[in-house]
Design brief:
The structure is a homodimer of 368-residue chains. The first copy, chain A, has 368 residues and is of the alpha+beta class. Chain A has 2 domains: 140 residues, Creatine Amidinohydrolase, Chain A, domain 1; 215 residues, Creatine Amidinohydrolase, CATH 3.90.230.10. In chain A, 36% of the residues lie in helices and 21% in strands. Chain A has 10 helices and 19 strands. Chain A has a 6-stranded mixed sheet with strand order 4-3-2-1-5-6, sandwiched between helices. A 3-stranded antiparallel sheet of chain A has the order 7-10-11. In chain A, strands 8-9-12 form a 3-stranded antiparallel sheet, with helices on one face. The longest helix of chain A has 22 residues. Chain A is elongated and about 70 Å long. In chain A, 45% of the residues are buried. Chains A and B meet through helix 5 and helix 8 of A and helix 5 and helix 8 of B. Chains A, B: Keywords: Hydrolase, Metal-binding, Metalloprotease, Protease.
């Protein structure tokens, strides 16, 4: 993130805060923290926070953290004044609320522990501070990516495909799901990714019938279908792609079913443009499988991708949100048959003014 | 966990709930969930829960999860009745609260999002249900390990040392901190661990002056000191060990400082027995470094280890809790000098009736 992007994000957030009558927002959610400040330290679970942002409507934005992270925070978040807490975040927050004369403090209800809220409430009562639980203020902003973010997302996808290809060519009978998943995650790091964006899914044969399969010690046999759903984090942005192929020569059943899923994916992609709802795109893809007489997948068609691998908007039967240019979403229909296996195909796309731009170029088994 | 251990844990928890006038406890914390039920699915962040336990004081304990996890839950948690939610956990909880005629429901305040609490409050108001935020009910129980848990912790430490040794012998000038950390984490998985219990620390030279160093691309040079702090998860239980050594021949300064830290560790271990406080053990170790004229470390001397790598009790200046037989703690004094580097040594011990049992056998550079 460059300084201009950072200043623009802060200015837009402050505009929202002013409109809602909020004096300052306490940001606890790590992806929101990174988006607004550039500070990359991850939390180790919500109970071990790497810091908080305190963004008043006027004056310097602040980054609150402990001694382990102050150097990193100062280096990564030049627009923020770093304040170190020694006796816990709330003690420092109390001092700052007094100093900044805050009357109304908003916090992120979706990423704030109840026990911390109880202590914050006690503090607020003592200081005459009004607390405002808020949801999605920063997540809303994150949905629309700027040019720089879109560029990094393109690069993240490109790297993900390069990793996939380099491992794909080594896959042979006898390898286990776990071995392939490990090879993919290792290759990601070797090639410069921060790590996987989610636990890599590698599933053979009937194991692929479970949409969220976890890699096992099952060995690949010639003729097995192989489903790989993988993503990585590159310069803070996630990628996500699924391919399904056969170890050896696919039979006609596989080819027919694979074509149906591919048609569903293409129908979903064709439906994407500004103004349509997530539900409409989901329906366009789902209908292709229904018309072909296949069972419908139990998950949504896709989800937003950015700093988080799952974010807004959702493409699902319940997705009422209208798509807008600059959103980035996955399109991932699936066909699951418990006794046979599963096929899922997934590409990522950018919503553009005219329609969408498909980020993926990998054609593995898409030419069946 | 065998069935007897599971029944015993549930029975002790119910005893506590009855004493506190609670009809049922909703368990959201993943380590507590695993401890009570045997169900191993991890959360992907607090916002993507793999399920909840609902433990009434009488009747079947329940495991609430969604369709992705029901098979796993049924296989891993035989003492629990698995209930699947389709429209979110709270909708199912509302039905169960009515069916079980719950009047007072406790939840884990330290692992419960404020936004979920708001929705739970609305539900409670509608149903005349009293909510009780609780802290540490299950964490208290987890502090004292049973024989089976102690055995797995011994095995986890043994495996951690085997992994350390196998990589230690490959370390040579030119390798980077990141490469060594990656090799350790890869070897853990190859040798049967579930994964690292925390992000592996590998720090050369001055990088080791930061207690929470993150591995960099710095290359090892002959004569550099090397600090490795690593742990793994084996059958659900964590290990944690630190060794510091020199690539090549240590000079007298390193030998002197290393001996001082070793003496501090041994003094800490010697102070451990039932009845002493965490603060007293911390002081015993810290005093050795003070007496030798070294700066004191800014972190606590140690922490409990079990299903979580950091749990109660804490060995620190603020550790008022008395040690009891069956607790498992680390003892990890350090000496940090910004211009020179750092030395930390860490063993894990079980508190026994007479004193303690040291789990580690690795002697790398401890014979200086």
């Amino acid at each position: 993130m460059d300084g201009d992007a950072g200043r623009d994000r802060l200015s837009r957030l402050r505009h929202t805060l002013r409109r809602r009558g909020i004096d300052a927002l306490l940001v606890s959610q790590p992806d929101n923290r990174r988006y607004l400040s550039g500070y990359t330290a991850p939390d180790h679970g919500i109970q071990e926070s790497a810091g908080f942002l305190l963004i008043p409507v006027a004056g310097s934005p602040l980054l609150l953290t402990d001694s382990r992270f102050t150097l990193q925070a100062e280096a990564e978040a030049p627009l923020f004044k770093v304040e170190m807490y020694r006796k816990g975040m709330l003690t420092l927050l109390e001092q700052l609320a007094r100093k900044l004369d805050l009357r109304t403090l908003a916090f992120e209800s979706d990423y704030f522990l109840h026990s911390v809220f109880l202590r914050l409430s006690a503090l607020a009562k003592k200081r005459g501070l009004t607390l405002r639980p808020e949801r999605g203020l920063v997540e809303q902003m994150r949905m629309i990516k700027d040019e720089h973010e879109l560029d990094v997302l393109r690069q993240s996808t490109r790297l993900n495909e390069t990793v996939f290809q380099s491992v794909y060519h080594t896959i042979e009978p006898g390898m286990t799901e776990r071995e392939i998943a490990l090879a993919l995650e290792l290759t990601m790091r070797e090639m410069g990714a921060e790590g996987p964006s989610f636990d890599t899914i590698v599933a053979f044969g009937t194991n692929a019938a479970r949409p969220h399969a976890v890699p096992t010690d099952r060995e690949l046999r010639a003729g097995d279908l192989v489903l790989i759903d993988m993503g990585l984090v590159y310069r803070g942005y996630c990628s996500d792609m699924t391919r399904t192929f056969v170890a050896g020569k696919p039979d006609q059943t596989f080819i027919d079913r694979h074509r149906a899923v591919r048609q569903a994916m293409l129908a979903g992609i064709a439906a994407i443009r500004p103004g349509v709802t997530g539900a409409a795109v989901d329906r366009a893809a789902r209908q292709v499988l229904i018309d072909a007489g296949y069972p419908v997948f139990g998950h949504g068609l896709g989800h937003g991708v950015g700093i988080a691998v799952h974010e807004e908007p959702r493409l699902s039967p319940r997705g009422t949100k209208q798509l807008r240019a600059g959103m980035v979403v996955t399109v991932e229909p699936g066909l699951y048959l418990a006794d046979w296996g599963g096929i899922r195909l997934e590409n990522m796309v950018i919503v553009t003014d005219q329609g969408c731009e498909v980020l993926n170029r990998d054609t593995t088994s898409l030419d069946l």
